[in-house]
Every structure is written in C-alpha cells, then in structure tokens.
C-alpha cells in the first residue's frame, strides 16, 4: 500500500476498532449494571431473555432492550420545542464518545515497517482536549431539560448544569498535579512516564504519586457523569427521571448510551492517568524486571498482548467500580453536592497543587 | 487541503455568527454561537495553535455559553412573548459600525497577511506556557488579580441584602 492510503486506512481502522470497543462495552455494561445491582441486593437479576432456550445468565437482555427501544412509539410532547427536543439526545451522545480519541490503548507497534500508535490522535494538548469534550456534555442535559417543556426536566436540567460547572473546576485542578509530576499534558507521554519505579518497588503510577489528586478526580468524574451519589439531575424520587422524563423510545436509549459511554471513557481516562494506562507492572520492552533484580525474558508479541490486556482489564475494573459505587452509596442531597464541590473539593485540589509543587521543588534541589 | 479547510470553517464561522444575531429564539442563537466558536477553534488548529483551540472550546463553548443557556432556561420566556425587534436608530448605527469594522479588518488583513505554509510551533502548550511565565508574567499576574476582583465583586453583589 502507498503512503497516504496506508495512513488513512490505519486511521479509519483505529477509529472503528476503538469506537466498537466502547460501544460493545456499553452493551455489556448495561447487563453488568443490572446483574451487579441484583447481586449486591441479594437477588438474581435479569435472567429471562433467551434465544432457543439458551439463557446465558441474562446476557441476551441488552439485545431485548435494544429491540424494545427500537419498536416503541417515538413520542414528542405537545409542549416541547420540537427541533431542540430532537437535538438533545445527539448533543448528549456525541461528546460522550469523543473523549476516547486521545486514550492510548497500547504502546506504538510496528506494522510493515511503520510505527503505528494505538491511539486515534496523540494531541499536543492531550488532557485539555478531554476537558473541552467533557465541557460539551452539559448541553445535551440542559437542552433536554429546557426543550421538553415540562417542569421536572427543567429542574433536572438546571441542577445538572450547575453541578457540572461546579465540578469541572475541581476536575481540572485535580489533574494539575499529574501534569507537574509527568511534565506533560500529552497522553502518550504521561503513560510512558508511569513506566518507572518509585523507591525501586512501587510502579510509578499516577495513583501513587498523586493519591489525593486521584480521589478528587474520581469524585469529580462521578459528578460529571451524573452517576450516583451525584445523580441529582435525574433523582427519581423527586424529579421522576429528571432531564429525560419526557423521552421515550430510541431517544431515551441514546441518553442511556451516553451515560454508559461516560462510564467507559471515564474508566479509560482514570486507568490512563492514574493507573499507568497500558503499563503492566514491572514489564519492560524485553521482559519482566522484578524489584529483586531478577529478569524474565518475554517475547515482544506477548509483551504487546500483556500491555493491551493490562489496559483493558483496568478499564473493566473502573467500569465495574461505577456500578459498585452506585449500588453502595446513597444519593446526596443537592445542597450537600454543591457544598462538597465548592467547599471541600476546590480547596483540597488547590492544596494538592501547592503540596505537589513544594515536594517537586524540594526533590529537585 | 489547508485552504479548503480554511474556507470551509471560515464560512461556517461567518454564517454561524450571522445566524446568532438574526435568530428570534435565544436558544437557537446560543447554539449557533457554539457552532461559531467551534469553527473558530478549527481555524486555530489550522494555524497550529492547538492550545488556543482547546482553551477556546473549554472557556467559551464549555463555560461562557453554558451560562447563557442557563440564564435562557431560568428566565424561560415563552416564544409568543419575546420582545418584537424594530429598526431603531441604535440598530441602524450598529449595522453601519459593523460595515466599517469589516472594511477595517479587510485593510488590516491585507497589511498583515499570514504567511503561507505550515505555521511555526507557537501554539503548543509548552511555548504558550513558557511565554506566559517569562515574557508576559506581569500581564498574567495582573489578569489573575483582575479576575479575583471580579469573583469577589460577584460574591459581594450576590450576598447584599436588599
């Protein structure tokens, strides 16, 4: 294949594979969420959908859901602003998937004499792109809340826009420490920077050098994704279903997909920034380098496989963490959410920046 | 390729801006404003100013317009009660001023024509950060004090008991 054609083919393939990974995981996560909820609450969960009598632990339920969403009546309320009402689910879904573009799924690989990054775009602005994209997610919620022409969605939309704006501040500030330690905002460099060892034993992962930053970022991310304990915008006990009360059929499922995409992409971001991305502990390019000084040689193909596997398992774990936390921690009250955002998260993230700067200054002396 | 993209995004930015001022519904104006801001960010990317593009989207599209939308939603004026727009003296003067502004920018554009070809690496995070904290440190600090004053002022106004 010639040069430009090869590049285009690689780009298209990367986009297709990574998007397929995300959407596939979304489908699985809808099942994991309900099954996880069931086991945490000591019941069986969905297990009735079957194909020719094969039930497969309820794994066919996502399929049944999709069919149901497709064939339900696509209803638009009389009071709704028709155009904006139809645009809102798209505004919700599109930014949710875009974040995956800067996530590296593995180290660079060499195919037919060319280096190919396992990342859709290794942008110079890296994380800033993620912030830009996550800043867009608020429009879907707000537009849905306003365009539905009904009071519960409006209240949900108002809540969520205030909440998302508040937590975006601490989300941004909680990552400054990571930039300072790894001296870059480029995702690939942050992951490579996490390859070393701390004190010769611990992998130099973001979570070990920035423990406070990790907790702050995780909390801010849950608030951004409107997940319990921060799912006030759709608090069903007070707002029916919040901003998507008036949505039915496939438009409703687009909101649901957006929420699960947030979980998947959010899990990938946490894994990349704080848990070494594709770094496998103690695994170098040639094989394992254990802290004791012993080495185990591993063939390059297996190294690549182990690294991609490490990344995927980290993503799966953090996606599961979303489910775990949702069914463990009850929902906060709205004033508590706001107080936590401004009076706890913000000062702590500023403190984290200050402490990180101080330690770096002392270490470099 | 670059020229095609420039014309495309430039056209989107200009059309979006025209739609912002001509739409009757405030929500439509706000959404066209987002479109315009994105198109301008794309123009920044074409000039290799990646940092500027990201900040443009984060600050303007991600925060400022969200506040506009927030206000539109809070006030929530029904469409039949929106104020009727008339051709007042101010509006006519505004159109005249816009015309003069366009002429001026055409003159300026002819004088400071951008070089063709790939732009220098001026817009990366590193170069912008270095410039901000060395050559423009004083301006940077003064801006931050100004913003702090604005924050404190807003809180003082909001807390005042009437």
In short:
The complex is a heterodimer of chains A (365) and B (162). Chain A is mostly helical.
Describe the protein.
The complex is a heterodimer of chains A (365) and B (162). Chain A is mainly α and 365 residues long. Chain A has one domain (3-194, 205-278, 300-364). Chain A has twelve helices and six strands. In chain A, helix 3 (82-98) packs antiparallel against helix 4 (127-147) and helix 5 packs parallel to helix 12 (334-364). The longest helix of chain A has 38 residues, at 3-40. Chain A is globular and about 70 Å long. With 162 residues, chain B is an all-alpha fold. Chain B is globular. The chains are: A mainly alpha (365), B mainly alpha (162). Chains A and B meet through helix 4 and helix 5 of A and helix 2 and helix 3 of B.
Supply the key terms.
heterodimer, A: 365 residues, mainly alpha, two-stranded antiparallel ribbon, 12 helices, 6 strands, 64% helix, B: 162 residues, Four Helix Bundle (Hemerythrin (Met), subunit A), 6 helices, 0% strand
